[in-house]
Amino acid sequence: MSTKILIVDDSTTDRLIISTMLADYHTLTACDGLDAMALIEKNPDIDLVILDLNMPRMNGFEVLEAMQENPEFRKIRTIILTNYDEIDNEVKGLELGAVDYIRKPLNIQSLLIRINIHIKLKQVQKMIEQDNERLDAMVLKKTREVAATRDITIQALVGLLEVRNVESSRHTIRTQLIMKILCDHLKTKDKYKDILTEAYVKELVTTTPLHDIGKVGIPDNILLKPGRLTDDEFTIMKKHVNYGVNALQNEIYCDEDVPSFIKTAMEIVGAHHEKYDGTGYPNGLLGGAIPLPGRLMAIIDVYDALTSKRIYKPAYDFDYSIDLIISESGKHFDPDIVVGFLEIKEQVAEISRKFIQEIHEVETL
């Protein structure tokens, strides 16, 4: 595609001289700013504008201002034409976005050299923009591939638990839904609004299903035991936290930064059995020393365990479960998160009701 140049000057002679000089290019001409803007609107692919400043109806400054208001028009390079005694106009024109100036009466050779320089610069600019577009497309494709690989890996790991009938897919979906609405609610509060960004919430929701992934390393006689665990059995059961953290640790390479979603997953897995008063496991962390993902997952996991039927217990009703959570505020759970959880308890209850209804429908088939 040939270079397109717009010549804007109220002098017929100057327009003719410049057009003749640029016979090798595709040129358009306008006698004032209004005509120029109409041509720019119709031809947004114009590469260069040669713009006189002193014109009737709409002067060159007004054209520059109008071009600055449109992001597409800002890409057009503009050379302004000024008289020898108009130094202030030169400065003002450059401040309004012009890339160069040339003084009247025209020095044809000088103008041609400057035009050729700016046309080459425009061509380089286009090449850079095209390269950037290709790079952006490649980065986007790679990002999507990484995200898809991550999601597939998470689904595969969680599938290991589901195959052993330890956790159902409904548990995975419920905890993800609760994590999403809890985070969305908490980020409306001053304490969390700068922490719970959209990207971070997405990571939390995506990695929620991994919280008990370490249970794949627990023997069936303990994992699937229908009754209460003995002290020794519970000691073995608690190891699932470190099993899960170690499994994720294997995804980290010593010479690379830890991917943020793996870090988030490790905090969910490693801290969701910690208790706010420091009596939890595996590290007995206290209060704010417990990573936020662990504090969030703790209340979500306990609520879902209370309201769901498990191999070792029946499902408890909603009110009983909420009362228990309230009683554990400041002990098992972060008090601020408990407050937020209670503020959305009806939304949480709706999630539970929906899945209870689905289970009932399946069991009656």
Quick structural overview:
The chain has about 375 residues and is of the alpha/beta class. It has helices at about 10-20, 35-40, 60-70, 70-75, 85-95, 110-165, 170-185, 200-205, 220-225, 230-235, 240-250, 260-270, 290-305, 320-325, 335-345, 345-365, and strands spanning about 5-10, 25-30, 50, 75-85, 100-105.
Query: In CATH's first tier, which class of the largest domain applies?
Result: Mainly Alpha
Radius of gyration from the alpha-carbon trace, in angstroms: 34 Å
The main sheet orders its strands as 2-1-3-4-5
CATH topology of the largest domain: Hypothetical protein af1432
Arithmetic mean of pLDDT: 85
* Share of helical residues: 55-70%
The CATH superfamily of the largest domain turns out to be Hypothetical protein af1432
CATH architecture of the largest domain: Orthogonal Bundle
Largest beta-sheet details: 5 strands, parallel
Defining key terms:
365 residues; alpha/beta; Hypothetical protein af1432; five-stranded parallel beta sheet; 16 helices; 5 strands
Q: What secondary-structure arrangement, pairings included, does this model have?
A:
Layout lengths: L3 E5 L3 H10 L4 E5 L2 H10 L5 E5 L7 H9 L2 H4 L2 E7 L3 H9 L4 E5 L3 H56 L5 H18 L11 H10 L12 H4 L7 H7 L1 H11 L10 H12 L20 H16 L10 H10 L7 H9 L1 H19 L2
Helix pairs in contact: 2-3, 7-8, 7-13, 7-16, 8-12, 11-12, 12-13, 13-14
Describe the structure.
The protein is an alpha/beta fold. The protein folds into two domains: 4-134, Rossmann fold, CATH 3.40.50; 164-363, Hypothetical protein af1432, CATH 1.10.3210. 59% of the residues lie in helices and 7% in strands. It has 16 helices and five strands. It has helices at residues 12-21, 33-42, 60-68, 71-74, 87-95, 108-163, 169-186, 198-207, 220-223, 231-237, 239-249, 260-271, 292-307, 318-327, 335-343, 345-363, and strands at residues 4-8, 26-30, 48-52, 77-83, 100-104. Strands 2-1-3-4-5 form a five-stranded parallel beta sheet, sandwiched between helices. Helix 12 packs across helix 13 (292-307). Mean pLDDT is 85; it is low at 359-365.
